[in-house]
């Protein structure tokens, strides 16, 4: 029989008789693979952007304006003549050129082109919706008599019968229309002439000739129309019906990538810790194998085979649950409002293969790392060390620990000195991984140091059980580190993620509330205010100042703005020059009272990067794709990391999807506003940031959900490792009882050890999280201490203590039920 067959048979027998350790490894790999595959499903869903069409279902292809465009960086072309470009993303509805329909009609295979003219509309009693030209109703399969000018087809759910009159607000102007019919769609269809007057051409539905392949037709359309438009076919045709779909798909891709990578790193550490415990328990077996002539290579191949079998079984078992976990995460994201439920969730074979490969890699790497020292040890030394392992620090472990700590320190320095605002959080994930890896590699030494501090109070408070526990912790410090490491990981990750989110939310709240001086906000109930309303508000007795409030984004096309890192562009706020006093953003040059016509107020750092000052002209591309030359009226100094530009409200409004302001800031006596403007709601100034606050809340829920999955995984590893470690001490417990210790004394000794493990894990976990939180808090709040209630630390610590005590005491209680003589004989 060949050596390979012998080692394979030995591997299978080892798996049979060492079930505890391999079950623990199986569980760690199973959950790790499930999380990675689930994140892969989220990424595939984001990449596919599968939004089944409804209103545009009758089109074989849909043509919309491309929201991405190239921005020159100001750098010289390379040797091949290629310019260095970066890409921006437009944030508002982008209209198509009027002559585009003719070009599309001329493409071979096109039978008919249906224009979709759209605009925001608010149906009285029905809330905000969109208005569309009647011609586009054919794409939804809606027939019947076309509405005449002044007539509309409303949703059947509105309860408005044909012939009734209904008020519809479009851009702040309320008009009355006659209902000519109803439809199953949730939009309002207008006469084509009314739609042309009120809206813009946002999409073209292309109906293919019989026998024409839709995908091939899409390719031909892209060749003819160029890069300024996007041609959508298949499942992507529904994207124009949901303007936020592109942003949500990018969010899914980003979330899946970040947390998937995070899960991979955590899985590597967890599986490594679990496998290390399993191999340590078998030091006696490995020593005996070495003593009878087994070579180090054969030992490594045996453990490699074991890990391969366990990893394969775990990943195959995780295949189906991973799809359910991915669906669960996707549904929760939909519940939190981060993703629209119109998306179709996809969990194909690609993310599953990636999850399988990741789990196999984690298992194999962890097994080889754990077996390396055991396989190289000489037989006599291995037999001497089989019971107690003392040496743990190897040159390789030390080098990687130094590199990990160096990475954490470098990321902290970058966070404090380079990044600011929300961007500072981008280094948090890599930083916590670096610190956790470093402390995990040096866990035996760190555990010894913490235990040395705890020994005196433990011995003083617990006497005999404490003395036994102190002796055990001193002798078994290396193996004890395998139990402390998962507690440290779970505590460190939980504290870092939770306090990171609370600090981010507080930093953002301060940035958005400290720059406002308004006493109240007038909120439109009809979708927006017509331009003359703000003047009427100013004339209200007691009102001292009023200004529209509009938000959008824009890009500086020329000169090049090197400070603009985000592809979404510069945050813009539209205000009135007459109401500029309501904005508390410090002005460094110029005056906000000059913010009229085609002008803008730029953040100082952006102006310095572009080498422009007050009076200079720059070229802006607004959220709807329109380009305009504007004059720099002022330079402002917003909070670092929350840079915004200010623009005249009327200028910015015409480049937004709504077209008008839906909020008006007011200061002074507001008691007369409610009576004078019955179609508006008077609210406090926090309303201005409620959309952003909701976004923060959504972001928090997302982080808590996905981070909770990772923390739960590490918590499982805590239980996993501690149960296996404690159950393996049956012989030790039996010897203690045979030497005179009572069962209760042994159990109390184990309880003291569990307490020491808990305290060590919490202390080291706090250090792991501090390496991430302190630099971030300094950058975001100028404070060493992160923002958040202290009870979060107490809850996390209490949960870690509960897990640890349960995972240690329960198997110890079960092990002590066996007669001491039997436990010694079994070993």
Summarize the model shown:
With 827 residues, this protein is α+β, with helices and mostly antiparallel strands. The protein has four domains: 1-51 and 245-387, no CATH class; 61-241, no CATH class; 392-515 and 690-827, no CATH class; 526-678, no CATH class.
Question: Helical proportion?
Answer: 40-55%
In angstroms, what is the radius of gyration?
Answer: 33 Å
Question: What is the mean predicted local confidence, pLDDT?
Answer: 80
Note the overall shape.
elongated
Specify the number of helices.
23
The number of domains: 4
Unreliable sequence segments: none
Q: Cα distance, first to last residue?
A: 30 Å
Tell me the β content. 15-25%
Instruction: Specify the structural class.
Output: alpha+beta
User: Main sheet, how many strands, which sense, barrel?
Assistant: 10 strands, mixed
Count of individual beta strands: 21
Question: Can you put this structure into words, describing what you see?
Answer:
It is a single chain. The chain is an alpha+beta fold. It folds into four domains: 1-51 and 245-387, no CATH class; 61-241, no CATH class; 392-515 and 690-827, no CATH class; 526-678, no CATH class. It contains 23 helices and 21 strands. Helix 2 packs antiparallel against helix 9 and helix 11 (395-417) packs antiparallel against helix 12 (428-441). The longest helix is centred in the middle third of the chain and has 40 residues, at 296-335. The mean pLDDT is 80.
